[in-house]
Amino acid sequence: MQNVQRPDQREFNQLRPVSYQLDIAPAAAGSVLIRFGNTQVICAASLEADVPKWMLREGQTGGWMTAEYSMLPYSTDGRKQRDSTRGKVDGRTIEIQRLIGRSLRAVTDLSKLPGHTLWFDCDVLQADGGTRTASITGAYIAGQIAVQRAMAAGRLAENPFSDSVAAISVGIWEDQEILDLCYLEDRDASVDANMVMTGSARFVETQISGEEATYDGAQLNKLLELAKLGIEELTGLQQTAIKEALASPSNY
Fold it and tell me: What pLDDT, in 10s, does the model give residues 7-37?
């Protein structure tokens, strides 16, 4: 093992400092500003008494859950043009918002959202690696707050979530398996991965790719173990945030 230090001096198995600010968007049913180091994402959940037209056409019962994701123009070095002015959504954005939606639906019983759509809006304020993983982790917090407030208000009869879900990045950088990559590590990693897992330690999705490099089974197992370690810590943080939000009065 090489004697190398990470750019921010963390241990190889250490998350960046993770923090949150609840109800950052008061008009949303549930919201949180989540920070993974210098990465900051606002995640908001809105419950709409409507379902997509395709569900009506196909005679589908229950409800739906979906996500939108965007990086604000000032979230990176050098202004990022808005999709609305470009006239189309770029492929990366589409990929990430589909990933967020799939991840949340994996732990949801949609029959318990009858006639409703739960929208997740994830807006990146500052990007320093891991924006998709922060979005998934924060979206679950916002969604759980939203549905429990809706239950208290009589809008929903049951909680549609069957488990929690969170996500974290892992990778191989400087020949070392590491947890929660910042931008500099992500840029130079030989292997880059995003792991989505439930609170009960089941995998929802694994996205692993070598950047002009390969990896073996032992390295893959080490990455999976690091991801489990990170998800376990994030799950505890999610639970704390949700309890804190629900203990506070809400206008919803």
Answer: 999 999 999 999 999 999 999 999 999 999 9
List of domains in the chain = 18-162+234-246 (3.30.230.70)
How many alpha carbons fall within 13 Å on the CB side of residue 145? 35
Amino acid residing at 33: L
Which of 24, 19, 248 lies closest to 149, judged by CA?
248
How far, in Å, CA of 71 to CA of 38, rounded? 14
Separation CA 99–CA 95 (nearest Å): 6
- Could you write out the DSSP letters of every residue in 196-252? EEETTS-EEEEEEEESS----HHHHHHHHHHHHHHHHHHHHHHHHHHHHHHTS----
221-234 burial: b if 16+ Cβ within 10 Å, else e: ebbbebbebbbebb
Instruction: Please write the tens of the pLDDT for every residue from 100-148.
Output: 999 999 999 999 999 999 999 999 999 999 999 999 999 999 999 999 9
* Contact partners, residue 238, CB within 8 Å, separation at least 6: 137, 140, 141, 144, 164, 166, 199
* pTM, rounded to two decimals: 0.94
AA identity, residue 247: A
Closest C-alpha to 179, from 162, 193, 159? 193
SS3 80: coil
